[in-house]
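User: quick one
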Amino acid sequence: MTASAIEVRGLHKHYGQHEVLKGIDFHVDAGQVVCVIGPSGSGKSTLLRCVNRLEEPSAGEILIEGVDICDRRTDLDEMRSRIGMVFQQFNLFPHLSVLKNLTLAQRSVRGRAKEEAVEVARQNLAKVGLSEKESAYPAHLSGGQQQRVAIARALSMNPDMMLFDEPTSALDPELVGDVLAVMKELAREGMTMMVVTHEMGFAREVGDKLVFMDDGIVVEEGRPAEVLSHPQHERTRSFLSKVL
Amino acid sequence: MGVTRRQRALLVQTTLYVVLAAAVVALALVADWPVIRENFWNSGGIGWADGNWGDLITIGMVNTVKYTAIAFAGGLALGLVLALMRLSPVAPYRWLATAYVEFFRGLPALVVMIFMSTGLPIAFGWTPPGGTVGAGLIGLIMVAGAYMAETLRAGIQAVPKGQTEAARSLGMRPGATTVKVVLPQAFRIVIPPLTNEFVLLIKDTALLFLLGAAANERELTSVAKDFLTSGPSAGTATSLIQAALLYLAITLPLTQLVAWLERRQRKAVR
Ligand SMILES: Nc1ncnc2c1ncn2[C@@H]1O[C@H](COP(=O)(O)OP(=O)(O)OP(=O)(O)O)[C@@H](O)[C@H]1O
Ligand SMILES: [Mg+2]
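Assistant: Done. Structure below.
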């Protein structure tokens, strides 16, 4: 049996006395799209950020393609370069043009020559439908365009998997669709994805698995249609009744 | 019917203007203009060909700008190292940098400059390079570095955490993240306060006068001071007025530039 793309075992995280993750076990198989939902403060972002160790887990194991990323011998930066991450607030580099945003890490981390980096960047810009914006600066793009650039930036590293933390929550409603379309296309191409989202339609349409979190634990998980239509737990039911 | 608030305000304002006008007129009548002119704008010193301007500009002002540039560049380099040390995960670096900054911000620059040019040679028999001017500049750099470290640290901390997180999540190493992502943004933020720092340094180079310098190494204040007792306007304050004008010719555009940069930045934030 080959290792899961992401495997989380007994993950705990606390800030001081405050325990945010209280023993999480779950996995994402290669090529799967796993959506994580749950109320605000339930620990979704914390979980996602532990996966590439932007947050330090307090206890438990996180295996990326079978490699323990908390092991001291693991080259964390090399692992991170294979895990694309997309943030709610885009976090594009405002002092660099769109093209430079996409080539910076390729050159600095992958050591690609300029021509190669630019070529890869242009391919990914085309993919998110923003080829004509390569010399624009982030401040001159709409939120939806910025988020698509952020996705293209992550893709330019040729990651094995992508993490999304509420990628459409900061967007005006009419811009959400463009970003979701890009993500659906990625899913269709077989990208392994872990997506924290409130977009139940997206979860139902492209998700292979839906994980419902509340108060630092995974309350239930299963096929999205199944969980959304027949939630097994009272907490899931009451959450879904509020958001659907 | 009494006076309205508006009328009262108008009355107060008019009174203030009248008082001011009276004071100006009285001053103009009482003042002995020929004597004032003789002492503060003496015809001997203000000629272009034979007056004080030549030395004031080609020696004094040129050296002032040169020394300021050196002190600024040195202070910036030192300040950057100190700022990065203060933000280092390694605690002893933080302690060292904090101690340095607190120590040198708490001292008059002049004390440090005299220490470098006179104290060190007396205590250790070692003279810093560049003579008294070089020693004084090193002292100035040591103090300026402490101030700039704080400015730069604030700038670095003003860069949103998400920027670092985005760079690190792409696999960029801490050093590359700092150099390529954080510092370029931090420098943009601190351009106005750094320009202010530059203006302060222009004025601080006048302290070099107290250390003494060879004739062609003198900065603006030293040259002006020497013209008080020698040259075509000796015995009058003319050269000081001229030096003041030259200082303002450099500092006023810079302070205006700072104000403009700050206005623009405030607009950009909105
Ligand atoms: N750096 C931190 N220090 C202290 N507490 C934190 C920190 N980061 C998160 N928390 C706490 O951890 C809990 C979970 O936060 P998290 O951001 O993971 O929730 P979330 O499920 O992503 O919520 P949201 O839907 O609002 O994004 C919250 O109670 C939050 O206050
Ligand atoms: Mg969150």
